[in-house]
Amino acid sequence: MSAQAIEISEHRNVAALTPITPMAMLAQAIERGMSPETIDKLMALGERWDNTQARKAFDMAIAAAKAEIPVVMKNATGHNNKKYADFAAIARAVDPVISKHGLSYRFRTVQTDKISVTCVLSHEAGHYEENTLAALADTSGNKNAIQSIGSTLTYLQRYSLVQALGIAASEDDDGRAANSSGALTDEQVDTLRSLIVEVAADIPKFCKFMKVERIEDIPQRDFDKARLALEAKKAKS
Predict the structure, then answer these.
(1) Among 100, 163, 221, 225, which is least packed, fewest CB within 10 Å?
(2) What is the spatial distance between Cα 78 and Cα 34, in angstroms, rounded to a whole number?
(3) Phi first, then psi: what are they for 37, rounded to 5°?
(4) 67, 92, 109: which is the final residue of a domain?
(5) What CA–CA distances, in Å, run from 60 to 72, 101, 135?
(6) Domain that holds residue 36
(7) Cα-Cα-Cα-Cα dihedral sign, residues 168, 174, 177, 178
(8) How many other CB atoms are found less than 10 A from the CB of residue 209?
(9) Are 126 and 167 in contact (CB under 8 A)?
(10) Which 3-state string (H, E, C) describes the chain?
(11) Res 76: pLDDT
(12) What is the pLDDT of residue 155?
């Protein structure tokens, strides 16, 4: 066999092992003058292929980012001297890591009878996922109208991003101390607030039902009562 024949044979073997992408198939179809119907089908196939590849890239980026995102430290103090991680602390921990892996996020807000915040988590390859949380304006604690809206927006942004990325704040001694003194832990407050958002409960009415001014004021002994009341509402919805 001549050297040219061997070269041609090797080229054919390599081509046979190389997968043909939908775009390559489309190019061949156009080159061969195939029917518009065939070209349309190949274009639809190419779109599905691109979407699948973008989704795979998104999933890989999320997995890689979550492995690198550090523990978010609780840096702010709320009611009853309870510590929590504010949005700035979450952003400082998250932003450099996810941008490294081609990810970014933004928020979309709609206000009707409730406030809805959608966290849009996107990847540079084109795939994105949306996570929406909604709640009534938090009028507890003698807030004015603007403060009530701002408090709910901040809360929904913080938790929609946390939920989208599956991250959590670190434990702290203050939370355990609060537990021993009869107040709710940060995790218990988060549990109740998540349920409130999920069932779109009226926060002032719920606080009145629990005979407190704020969610954070619910005593440790009444946590189960509060949780079961919200879960009962969830079961009815």
Answers:
(1) 221
(2) 67
(3) -60, -45
(4) 67
(5) 22, 9, 32
(6) 3-67
(7) negative
(8) 13
(9) no
(10) CCHHHHHHHHHHHHHHHCCCCHHHHHHHHHHCCCCHHHHHHHHHHHHHHHHHHHHHHHHHHHHHHHHHCCCECCCEECHHHCEECCHHHHHHHHHHHHHHCCEEEEEEEEECCCEEEEEEEEECCCCEEEEEEEECCCCCCCCCHHHHHHHHHHHHHHHHHHHHHCCCECCCHHHHHHHHCCECCHHHHHHHHHHHHHHCCCHHHHHHHHCCCCHHHCEHHHHHHHHHHHHHHHHHC
(11) 79
(12) 86
- In this prediction, residue 45 carries a pLDDT of 67
What are φ and ψ of residue 214, in 5° steps?
-135, 160
- Domain count along the chain: 2
Low-confidence ranges of the chain (pLDDT < 50): 1-17, 171-181
Identify the pLDDT of residue 90: 92
The number of angstroms, rounded, from the C-alpha of 90 to the middle of its chain's C-alpha atoms is 13
> Among the three residues 13, 38, 67, which one is the final residue of a domain in this structure?
67
Output the six-digit token pair for 202.
Answer: 């009226």
135 and 215 both lie in a single domain: yes
Buried b (16+ CB within 10 A) or exposed e, 74-110: beeeeeeebbbbbeebbeebbeebbeebbbebeeeee
Per DSSP, what are the bridge partners of residue 56?
none
Residue 147: predicted pLDDT: 86
| 81, 186: one domain | yes
Query: Would you state the pLDDT for residue 175?
Result: 37
